[in-house]
Design a protein that fits this description.
The complex is a heterodimer of chains A (302) and B (372). Helix content of chain A is 32%, strand content 29%. Chain A has 302 residues and is an alpha/beta fold. In chain A, the strands form 3 sheets. A 6-stranded mixed β-sheet of chain A has the order 6-7-8-3-9-10, sandwiched between helices. In chain A, strands 2-1-4-5 form a 4-stranded antiparallel β-sheet. A 4-stranded antiparallel β-sheet of chain A has the order 12-13-11-14, with helices on one face. Chain B is an alpha/beta fold and 372 residues long. In chain B, 68% of the residues lie in helices and 6% in strands. Classes of the chains: A alpha/beta (302), B alpha/beta (372). Chain A binds chain B through residues 51-53, 73, 76-77, 79, 81, 83, 85-92, 96, 100-101, 103-106, 146, and chain B through 2-3, 6-7, 10, 13-14, 17-18, 207-209, 211-218.
Chain lengths: 302, 372
Amino acid sequence: MKTVIEAEEISRNFGKVKALDNVTFSVNEGEIFGFIGPDGAGKTTLFRIVTTLLLPDSGTMKVLGFDSIKDFRELRKHIGYMPGRFSLYPDLSVEENLNFYATVFGTTVNENYSLIEAIYKHLEPFRKRLARDLSGGMKQKLALSCALIHRPRLLVLDEPTTGVDAVSRVEFWEILQGMKEHNITVLVSTPYMDEAMRCNRVALIQQGQILTIDTPDNIKSGFRGKLFKIKAPGKFKLINAVRDHHNTLSAYPFGDSVHATFFNDTVPEDFVNYLTMKGIENVQITESEAHIEDRFLELMNI
Amino acid sequence: MRTILFLIRKEFLQIFRNRFIGRAIFAIPLIQMLILVPAVTFEIKYVNLCIIDNDRSVESRELIGKLEGSPFFRVKYYTWSEEKANELIYNNKCSAIINIPSGFGKELGAGRPVKILARIDAINAMKGQLTWAYLSGVISSYNENIIAESLPVVQATMVPRISVTGRYWYNEMLNYKYYMLPGILVILVTAIGFMLAGLNLVREKEIGTIEQINVTPVKKSEFIISKMVPFFIIGLADLGFGLILGKIFFNIPFEGSLLLMFLGSAIFLVAVLGLGLFISTFSSTQQQFMFVAFFFIIVFVLMSGIFTPFESMPMWAQKFDLINPVAHLIRFNRMVMLKGSGIADVARELLLLCGIAVIFTTFAVRRYRKTA
């Protein structure tokens, strides 16, 4: 399998803040590689280095066989980048934006229409509309079309679904899944854990450091303890009570319930009584399979 | 090369899609020409006088008559009270007080020298000086009359005197508009070249599109050129428009070569476009850019010699003006339009403008390379 990105010990500081601290990873051809991490973890900085917009303080980055510092001009012809913030020309129409980016890359919309057809057909009815008047989901589709119009070999997407409705998010991920057919590698970041499951491999990143890189399933099964799902009315009271118990290792809100791990991987014997004493009734406790965020939170707490 | 054409096409599309800017590009020259040219003038039409005539003799009335006869003075107030006169000058009702002492006529009749007192409001120093000059002119001509009257005819004509015949060159009618218009044309071109291109680039930064451009193979120099060319063209178009307006509304003379006129503005435009883009590389918001650009424009315009004679500025200011493109172009325009100067006559201005253009543009491109 060919490697598309090879990053070795990349560091980048902004003043005293270590945005990236010795980051090493590699991405294989044709895969969807996800960076998962909270805001400020360093995802955008990393993507800006991959796309030649920013220089690392140290480390080497090879993208598509090009050195991202020395051969940046050649490399730029083969990367499609979609920044986190919508950054197409708001005062140009859908069609004009697309044509503009095609010509800037020395190609035409017709030449690569097959690649964007699936996405662009949703936009077709609005092609005369100015980009600023599009809805959030439409804007993302236009941005993706523009990022793909020169048939890049690597597509870099910085939080493409942030602020996009649930239906558009699903659609968007289906499109990304289809990129493999066109031999396009996808590098994507997201703060949403459910989207992580749709990647071939993910890297968990926090405070500029990669915690782990693996397939989503492997990351999930890396969860070491036994996880219990506790459900009761009054979640806030519940979570505080669970945390206060001396046998509790961790407890955090998860959807409509609380995920908790305990010392010895068992629920303490008098736990239900303990909660009743605290004024919490109708408690349901079940063992649960770990989700990717459980593993993420576990890794973060190390 | 093809890329630049596409970039430029995009700029024009955006400029004229912006309905406000698209219209302002033509409205601003119109308004500037029609308002500034007639309004900005240092011509002092007349001065209001207040007379305190303590003498009330034939002679004093004759002097007042002379003043009234001058188109420059309007004798608006007569009073016998010093206080009243002071109040009038305080209230800006008059700009000068003439005090004729009692005994003025009697002394004159007796052939003795007399004195009158003139107090002039000199808040506007130039107006004050001018008032004084006109006043002494009127009084000395009155004086000459008295001398002539008191001497025998033969003797009077025999007094040797130099008589001067003056002629005003290049602006025979002393039409102030002719002086201002070439300068206003420069301000016009400055507004387009300096502000719009820089603002346009900062806007791309603000909305993040510059990021998207930077990941494309577009070169920085191509990008800078694509920002300069549209406003270069618009600037020259506005110059042409301004000249036509000047001809229609003010019948401005145009002695020199039209081609030379455009050449000067073209070089000037490169200079201010470069400076504008240079400033834009430092600014991350349009607000920052506006603030800094405003500062430069005010300094350049006020020190350009558009209102005040260049030669009367202090030496250091004249030195500074070596890098002030506005100063060079204003002088250049006045020479070409009013004197009909040829390329050899304005070579100094052209060369200085070229130098400034090269310096500013180089700064802009280099700085842009480093930052983005």
